């Protein structure tokens, strides 16, 4: 099946794949940055006590988690122009990626903060630390540490999800691969090049997660 | 204007219903195949034959590391080249079951590893063969550990099924796409599509959360 892969054509289209790769990288980075901001805001709103602020954040997270990204993407793609918002497909794509991943990021950060025991804060108080010192030295280091690996996991999901932007005609890696298929009637060559490029990103992120876990192992914990 | 459009959307209810039926049948069928295959993958991945486990690990990594859309295209475009003719539905089920098996396999493998080794040692001491240990002692406990994640995986599968609309299957997302061509109100049409997904998925998300909470309370 892969024996008669036309390597020459794959090499010939390498610059296109490279451009697609960079576009995917950029779209994912922008989407992830937005997701972190949205996630922090949604998480902050959902753990504070005011009900009328809490409710929208919880509704947002649940609505995103229970619907597919493609439906969310089409919702924005066909819906935004109707609201008079005319922006390029690429921007719609980044907004959809941020909105989607933001909900998962919110859940990840939330579980990090909720994992801290009250006794930790009380111990900080009894040793005379101020609120800011407690936050900086006790709460945040412990709350953020367990979120790093799942956040990298979410970044992996986001990179793969960004392939759906090809369906609203954003030129990224998946689209670049399809162009080889269309130009040369060689779907296999296009798909294989694309898959390999995605795998490079996947293994890089996985390596990062592994290194981070290795370097930040806490004494007494697995 | 809005009511008129809502009325027209309601006129499309057979398409919407067809889409829901397609989404549900794709997901359920793929889940069944995916769970069976996934358990087989998991047992191999956690098994003693390390070469086999690593080879399967490479295969699993390929499907965990590439976008599902690409996998759908691979099944839909590459398999026919090798002489296997597939309908869009079969292609969708193959791609979905395969990706489900890859994710479920890793979950099952970690579940098997989470069962204390003393359990299989005790079973071995009472004269059970490796297969018997797996079947009667390790797997039943592993199943308990992985069930909440499996429910979560089912939700992911339902959401992934939207991607097969790209090869022309009329699922829920495609139904929305069809409707929006004649009713130019994306917010309304995909609002309804989203609501349908929500009604299908939310109970499952709720169940998986409850199960996780219950498990935590039994451990602590």
Task: Explain this structure.
The complex is a heterodimer of chains A (about 220) and B (about 220). With about 220 residues, chain A is mainly alpha-helical. Chain A has helices spanning about 5-10, 15-45, 50-65, 70-80, 90-115, 120-125, 130-145, 150-160, 175-185, 185-215. Chain A has a single domain, classed as MetI-like fold. Chain A has ten helices and no strands. Chain B is mostly helical. Chain B has one domain (about 1-220): Orthogonal Bundle (MetI-like fold). In chain B, about 85% of the residues lie in helices and about 0% in strands. Chain B has helices at about 1-10, 15-45, 50-65, 70-80, 90-115, 115-125, 130-160, 170-180, 185-220. In chain B, helix 6 packs antiparallel against helix 7 and helix 7 runs antiparallel to helix 9. The radius of gyration of chain B is 21 Å and the shape is elongated. In chain B, about 40% of the residues are buried.
Provide the fold topology:
The complex is a heterodimer of chains A (222) and B (220).
Chain A: H1 7-12, H2 14-47, H3 51-65, H4 69-79, H5 89-114, H6 118-126, H7 131-144, H8 148-161, H9 173-184, H10 187-215
Helix pairs in contact in A: 2-3, 2-5, 2-9, 2-10, 3-5, 4-5, 5-7, 5-8, 6-7, 8-10, 9-10
Chain B: H1 2-11, H2 13-45, H3 50-65, H4 68-81, H5 88-114, H6 117-125, H7 130-160, H8 172-182, H9 186-219
Helix pairs in contact in B: 2-5, 2-8, 3-5, 4-5, 5-7, 6-7, 7-9, 8-9
Estimate the mean pLDDT confidence of chain A: 90
| CATH H-level homologous superfamily name of chain B | MetI-like
Largest sheet of chain A: none
What portion of residues of chain A is helical? over 70%
Q: Number of helical segments of chain A?
A: 10
Which stretches of chain A are poorly predicted, pLDDT < 50 over at least 5 residues? none
The CATH class designation of chain A is Mainly Alpha
Task: Determine the most extensive contact between two protein chains.
Answer: A-B, 43 and 43 residues
CATH topology descriptor of chain A:
MetI-like fold
Number of helices of chain B: 9
Q: Give the strand content of chain A.
A: under 5%
Shape of chain A: flat
Structural class of chain A: mainly alpha
Mean pLDDT of chain B: 90
Sheet with the most strands, sense and barrel status of chain B: none
Q: What fraction of residues of chain B sit in β-strands?
A: under 5%
CATH H level of chain A: which superfamily?
MetI-like
Summarize the amount of helix of chain B as a percent range. over 70%
Q: CATH first level of chain B: which class?
A: Mainly Alpha
């Amino acid at each position: 099946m892969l024996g008669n892969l036309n390597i020459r054509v794959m090499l010939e289209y390498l610059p296109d794949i490279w451009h697609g790769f960079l576009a995917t990288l950029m779209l994912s980075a922008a989407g992830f940055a937005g997701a972190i901001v949205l996630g922090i805001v949604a998480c902050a709103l959902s753990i504070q006590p005011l009900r009328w602020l809490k409710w929208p954040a919880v509704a947002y997270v649940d609505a995103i988690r229970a619907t597919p990204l493609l439906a969310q993407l089409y919702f924005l793609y066909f819906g935004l122009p109707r609201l008079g918002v005319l922006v390029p497909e690429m921007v719609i794509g980044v907004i959809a990626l941020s909105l989607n991943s933001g909900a998962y990021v919110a859940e990840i950060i939330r579980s990090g903060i909720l994992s801290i025991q009250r006794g930790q804060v009380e111990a900080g108080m009894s040793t005379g630390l101020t609120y800011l010192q407690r936050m900086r030295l006790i709460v945040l280091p412990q709350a953020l540490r367990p979120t790093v690996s799942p956040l990298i996991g979410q970044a992996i999901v986001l990179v793969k999800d960004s392939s759906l932007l090809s369906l609203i005609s954003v030129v990224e890696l998946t689209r670049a691969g399809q162009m080889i298929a269309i130009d040369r009637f060689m779907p296999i060559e296009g798909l294989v090049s694309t898959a390999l490029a995605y795998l490079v990103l996947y293994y890089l992120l996985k390596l990062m997660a592994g290194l981070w876990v290795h370097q930040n192992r806490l004494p007494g914990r697995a | 204007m809005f009511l008129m459009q809502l009325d027209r959307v309601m006129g499309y209810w057979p398409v919407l219903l067809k889409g829901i039926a397609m989404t549900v049948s794709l997901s359920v069928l793929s889940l069944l195949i995916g769970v069976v295959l996934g358990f087989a993958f998991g047992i191999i991945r956690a098994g003693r034959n390390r070469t086999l486990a690593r080879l399967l690990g490479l295969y699993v990594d390929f499907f965990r590391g590439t976008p599902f859309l690409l996998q759908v295209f691979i099944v839909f475009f590459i398999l026919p080249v090798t002489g296997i003719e597939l309908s869009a539905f079969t292609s969708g089920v193959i791609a979905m079951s395969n990706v489900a098996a890859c994710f479920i396999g890793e979950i099952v493998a970690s579940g098997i590893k989470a069962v204390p080794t003393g359990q299989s040692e005790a079973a071995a001491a009472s004269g059970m063969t490796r297969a018997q240990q797996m079947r009667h002692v390790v797997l039943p406990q592993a199943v308990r550990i992985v069930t909440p994640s499996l429910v979560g995986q089912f939700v992911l599968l339902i959401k992934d099924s939207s991607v097969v609309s790209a090869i022309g299957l009329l699922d829920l997302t495609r139904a929305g796409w069809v409707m929006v061509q004649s009713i130019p109100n994306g917010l309304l049409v995909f609002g309804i599509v989203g609501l349908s997904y929500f009604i299908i998925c939310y109970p499952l998300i709720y169940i998986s959360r409850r199960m996780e909470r219950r498990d935590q309370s039994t451990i602590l």
